[in-house]
Every structure is written in C-alpha cells, then in structure tokens.
C-alpha cells in the first residue's frame, strides 16, 4: 500500500506522520495526532507522555553523570602537584 504522505511530499521514505513514534500504531489520515518536539508523532496523549517522561529521565541521568565527571576532574586537579618548567640562566 502506498503511503499518503509519500504522494504528498514526493518521497518513498516512511514519513514521521505514518505511525506512532512509541508504539508504532498506524496513524490514520482522519485521526488525532499528538506531536512532541516538532518531529515526533504519537497516536495518543498517553504515548506522548510516556516519551516525555523517558526523555526527562535520560536528561536527568546525563546531568548527574556530567556533574560527577566534573567533580572527579576537579578532584584530580587538586591532587596534581605543580611543576614549573622554564629556562634557568647561570652566569
């Protein structure tokens, strides 16, 4: 079966409005579509909310891991001893 959106947009690739981004349920032409971040379509508000919660959890874990990396690098910098290099001229 040919895609409606392929005919409209002149592309054979599946269009993002063809199916739900989470559960992959087919999105009909006359059905409600719930959008998220501009390019993700969902069949229901529940699927959309589940994706939002998943993205928020990922962002939170990334922030926590980035914070721990910064803390580790600052602790490592404190442990380093300063070494001065340069040229010494003796007359």
TrEMBL record:
- The chain's coiled-coil residues are none
Q: Which UniProt keywords apply?
A: Metal-binding, Zinc, Zinc-finger
| Positions of the FLZ-type domain | 15-59
Q: What InterPro entries is this protein classified in?
A: FLZ1/2/3, Zf-FLZ_dom
* Record Pfam families: zf-FLZ
Q: Which GO terms describe its molecular function?
A: zinc ion binding
Q: Where are the zinc fingers (FLZ-type)?
A: 15-59
The membrane-spanning stretches of this chain are: none
Q: Does the keyword Metal-binding apply?
A: yes
Question: Its family?
Answer: Belongs to the FLZ family.
PANTHER family per UniProt = FCS-LIKE ZINC FINGER 1-RELATED, FCS-LIKE ZINC FINGER 3
Its name, as the record gives it, is FLZ-type domain-containing protein
Q: What is the lineage of its organism?
A: Eukaryota, Viridiplantae, Streptophyta, Embryophyta, Tracheophyta
């Amino acid at each position: 079966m040919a895609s409606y959106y392929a005919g409209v947009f002149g592309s054979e690739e599946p269009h993002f409005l063809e199916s739900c981004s989470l559960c992959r349920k087919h999105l009909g032409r006359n059905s409600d579509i719930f959008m998220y971040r501009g390019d993700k379509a969902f069949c229901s508000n529940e699927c959309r909310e589940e994706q939002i919660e998943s993205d928020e959890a990922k962002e939170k874990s990334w922030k926590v891991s980035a914070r721990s990396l910064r803390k580790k690098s600052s602790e490592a910098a404190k442990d380093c001893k300063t070494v001065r290099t340069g040229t010494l001229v003796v007359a």
